[in-house]
Specification:
Bound molecules: flavin-adenine dinucleotide
Number of helices: 12
Structural class: alpha+beta
CATH class of the largest domain: Mainly Alpha
CATH topology of the largest domain: Butyryl-CoA Dehydrogenase, subunit A, domain 3
Strand content: 5-15%
Order of helices and strands: HHHHHHHEEEEEEEEHHHHH
CATH architecture of the largest domain: Up-down Bundle
Strand order of the largest sheet: 1-4-5-8
Oligomer: single chain
Radius of gyration: 20 Å
């Protein structure tokens, strides 16, 4: 693995940074304060083609690789963590299942609209009684003539209310747990699709999270992704690469905390204690970045990357949390004030240790991968 970015990746980073610092970052504090969807940021990302980073050119996307995607999310998160999670979920778990498991018709129907940002993607797996143990989900998809009828409630769905399309996981068979689950493309405008409660979270205030209620939602069989009973594999594969995106979010938050701490120390002065803290913060973020880029590099080359993606998600998100806390410590009292970027990073970083598989679950995955035969 070459540890230098290729010229193409470096140029891409510079182009994302221009939008991130020019349009996205100036909105971050307001979006957080007002709990509002960063529409201008998403429009700018759309115009720059960032909603279709991973979608092949033949379907209207940029056709870039997992490393470019990681860099994109990292740059956005450095500017505004809410904007980054919206784009991340859309691009990875909200779109990739169609890319990886869709048939030709599904790809031709949905990918161009997702690439153009005409539709925002979302991923609906979690339920009130199934988070980490996703295989125990209860939403049903009953066969009915030439389609399915879906019933159930999904919770903590990112992009709720703004998504034009949800990838929904539901039980199609009597088989227990994972074997009975199938995946469906459910357009938001389908009859019976409703937004339930929208949650107020401690952070990521600009990223809407809430309940997706499905009441007698009729979808054609053509909207089933993959075979009946393949849904759990669709979800797990989507989450593998999704974890690289979460790593990008964490790197962005961590780097922002490092940069703001450094700027503050230069302006205000610093003692040796601050210097050591800053050095540890920067070293942690740099080591996390190497893990994330390595996982992305393996993914781009079609190599196995489950273990690397989980290690990266675990280390990057723990690093973001630690570094954000350290930054408040160096900033002192002013770092605790509402509206200060220091306190925002702490609130934003926390959910990253929980979603797309909590960090305890990442350890379960890593241990399983390490103990696999071979
Ligand atoms: C901001 C936010 C956005 C989200 N967006 C989405 C989304 O878009 N789509 C979606 O489907 N879901 C989404 N989620 C849900 C998220 O994926 C779940 O929160 C996550 O899977 C953990 O499930 P849980 O919260 O129900 O925790 P639980 O599964 O109830 O776990 C509680 C605690 O027990 C630990 N634990 C559980 N099982 C094990 C185990 N086997 N070994 C060790 N420890 C264990 C967990 O680590 C955790 O600390 C989102 C969550 C948040 C907070």
């Amino acid at each position: 693995m070459d540890l230098e970015l290729t010229p193409d990746h470096a140029v891409f980073r510079a182009s994302v940074r221009e939008i991130a610092q020019g349009v996205v970052q100036p909105l971050a504090a307001e979006v957080d304060r007002d709990h509002r969807f960063p529409i201008e940021a998403i429009e700018a990302a759309t115009q720059a083609g960032l909603m279709g980073v991973l979608i092949p050119r033949e379907f209207g996307g940029a056709g870039l690789d997992a490393l470019a995607f990681t860099i994109c999310i990292e740059e956005l998160a450095q500017a505004c963590a809410s904007t980054a999670v919206i784009v991340d979920v859309h691009t990875s778990v909200g779109t990739e299942p169609i890319l990886l498991f869709g048939d030709d018709d599904q790809k031709r129907t949905w990918l161009p609209r997702l690439a153009r940002g005409e539709l925002l993607g979302a991923f609906a797996l979690s339920e009130p009684s199934s988070g980490s143990d996703a295989a125990s989900l209860k939403t049903t998809a009953r066969r009915d003539r030439d389609g399915y009828v879906l019933n159930g409630t999904k919770v903590f769905i990112t992009n709720i209310g703004h998504a034009g399309l949800y990838i929904v996981f539901a039980r199609t068979g009597a088989e227990s747990r994972a074997a009975g689950i199938s995946a469906f493309i459910v357009p938001a405008e389908t009859n019976g699709v409703r937004v339930g409660q929208v949650f107020h979270k401690m952070g990521l205030h600009g990223s809407p999270t809430g309940e997706l209620v499905l009441e007698d939602v009729r979808v054609p069989a053509a909207n089933r992704l993959g075979a009946e009973g393949q849904g759990f594999s669709v979800a797990m594969r989507a989450l593998d690469s999704g974890r690289i995106g979460i790593s990008g979010q964490a790197l962005g938050i961590g780097q922002a905390a490092v940069d703001e701490t450094r700027a503050l120390m230069r302006e205000r002065g610093h003692d040796e204690g601050d210097d050591f803290t800053l050095a540890d913060m920067a070293a942690r973020v740099e080591s996390a970045r190497l893990l994330a880029y390595h996982a992305a590099w393996r993914c781009s080359r079609g190599m196995r990357f489950t273990r690397e993606a989980s290690m990266s998600k675990l280390h990057c998100t723990d690093t973001a949390m630690q570094v954000a806390i350290d930054a408040v410590q160096v900033a002192g009292d002013e770092g605790t004030l509402s509206g200060s970027p220091f306190e925002r990073h702490v609130r934003d970083a926390k959910a990253l240790q929980i979603y797309e598989g909590s960090n305890q679950v990442q350890r379960v995955v890593i241990a399983r991968e390490l103990l696999r035969a071979g």
